[in-house]
Specification:
single chain, 310 residues, alpha/beta, D-Maltodextrin-Binding Protein, domain 2, 2 domains, 5-stranded mixed beta sheet, 19% strand
Length: 310
């Protein structure tokens, strides 16, 4: 009997470990909005978080990065999904309304230029050729305007709207200045619209995040990008984004968390879960942070919590 009691007492510390690792189920409401790109990650995190916390209501909207920041600055949301860094004007709007926040990188992405599977002439494009297509001063109407050897057919263009962080990043990387773009294209904050548009027209071209291409490989083909005339054409993949050979269309992805919302335990536990479940980034077809990068973001978040030492 004494031996059994001794064994039981020895086992107690092991039995107590799960009590430390798992927080009690939460209740409440969390409002997220913003980037359609980051939506895929946040929605995956929300779905898995709710399995452990069924009484937490989580909404994840898609207003685009810019639209999401407008709601965030107005105090309408707890978390803003963003496919670019917050702009000075957006920071000023937050400050005006006394919205303090913590910026957390959650993944990497490679913007993907896509064409119809039957397109045999534009399997690779230089940045200069993309600029010839998308810059308002050149705005090629037909494929033959880009290269005389290409079809004398109208280029049907699809892409995100001006509230999208994807739009901001692409226009700066390709056209040299954010928001400088031709306007005569089919704009949509719903990337599925771009998938359908490009997949339904042999002479179409569009762009969006790598995850949407990975989900629709059967309908589209990714264009290999040549950064400079002396460079090789590089297709966007997890490897080429992380080793920085896919340029200039690789980018970080973020969430912005309102500090006032961190007074609510459901928000704290949700963000902790978000950073802990780095595997969900990969399942959403984006590129996870490495361990060093992830630890840095976790430290940033811990430092933003109420009562944290400054």
């Amino acid at each position: 009997m004494r031996q059994l009691m001794k064994m039981a007492l020895t086992a107690l510390p092991l039995l107590s470990v799960p009590l430390v690792l798992w927080a009690a189920p939460q209740k409440g409401e969390i409002k997220c909005d913003g980037s359609s790109t980051v939506y895929l990650i946040t929605e995956a995190v929300a779905t898995n978080f709710k399995k452990q916390n069924p009484e937490v209501q989580i909404s994840v909207g898609i207003s685009g990065t810019g639209g999401g920041f407008k709601k965030f600055a107005a105090g309408e949301t707890d978390i803003s999904n963003a496919s670019r860094k917050i702009k000075p004007a957006e920071q000023e709007a937050c400050q005006k309304n006394k919205i303090e926040f913590v910026e957390l990188q959650v993944a990497w992405d490679g913007l993907t230029v896509v064409i119809h599977p039957d397109n045999t002439w534009a399997k690779s494009l230089t940045v200069d050729q993309l600029k010839k297509i998308w810059h308002p001063d050149t705005a090629a109407k037909k494929w033959s305007d880009v290269d005389p050897k290409w079809p004398n057919e109208e280029i049907k263009l699809f892409g995100p709207g001006p509230d999208s962080g994807t739009f901001d990043f692409f226009t700066e990387a390709v056209n040299g200045k954010e928001k400088v773009s031709r306007t005569d294209y089919q704009a949509s904050e719903d990337d599925n619209t771009i998938v359908q548009g490009v997949g339904g027209n042999k002479f179409a071209l569009g762009y969006f995040g790598l995850a949407y291409y990975e989900e629709n490989k059967a309908k589209l083909q990714a264009v290999a990008i040549v950064a400079k005339s002396s460079d090789k054409a590089v297709v966007p993949t997890s490897e080429t984004v992380l080793n920085k050979t896919y340029t200039p269309l690789s980018r970080p992805l973020f969430i912005y968390v309102k500090k006032a919302s961190l007074a609510r335990p459901e928000v704290v536990e949700f963000v902790k879960f978000y950073l802990r479940r780095n595997d969900l980034v990969k399942s959403a077809k984006y590129i996870p942070l490495n361990q060093r990068q992830l630890t840095t973001q976790q430290d940033l978040f811990d430092g933003a919590l109420p009562g944290a030492k400054k």
